[in-house]
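Why do we care about 3D structure at all? Because function follows from shape, and shape follows, mostly, from sequence. That is the central idea of this module. The next example makes it concrete: a single protein chain, its amino acid sequence, and then its structure expressed as tokens.
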Amino acid sequence: MSATEEEELQVLYDNLRQMRLVNNVMLSCAAFVAYDILTNLDREIPLIWRYCHDIGNDERTSWRRRARHILVQTLFVFGRYYALLYLVLLFVVNNHQGLSVSVWSLPYTTLVNIILAIRLNALYRILHGTQGLRKYQVFLACVAIGILHNHTTICN
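And the structure:
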């Protein structure tokens, strides 16, 4: 065996070792997320799953409030369970040749930005009231659109 063949084999071995390490980390993260979901399920069911159902029983509740609760519930459920789905899917894709997963990170990244904007909006209302709120909301929307644009540019 020549020196170049040994160097190529060493590079191949290093790459395989690194891929194995990445797969182990992904599985560890997926196991941690699954553990977190299972340990908090007893609190999640009454607070999230039954939340919208309990709101719907009150006849005085407006359709806007119900829609807001459904939106919050949907964002929570998507953000909570999509991470586990994404990690498992990423593991499967990394272990099968010819598959790509770059598009799958876009919905989750967008969701995290939306949740961050909702939290920042609520924090701004608590600290500053409604004065200047519209300008702040436009700023948050522009930041979210900019991040989304940068992410789609990088993926392409």
